[in-house]
Amino acid sequence: MRNKFRQRPLPWAQQESHMLKFIGGTIGVIFIIGLLVVIGILSLIF
């Protein structure tokens, strides 16, 4: 019974960390693109 309980959270935690890494990477790429677009628009205005 103890072993079952101990083994269960491992794959879930692994999956969650992988998902968080993927979401973090996506947000990072979107943030960098957004920053470049904002700098481009500002350079066009000024």
TrEMBL record:
Q: Which UniProt keywords apply?
A: Membrane, Transmembrane, Transmembrane helix
Q: What transmembrane ranges does the database entry give? A: 20-45
> What protein name is recorded for this chain?
Aa3 type cytochrome c oxidase subunit IV
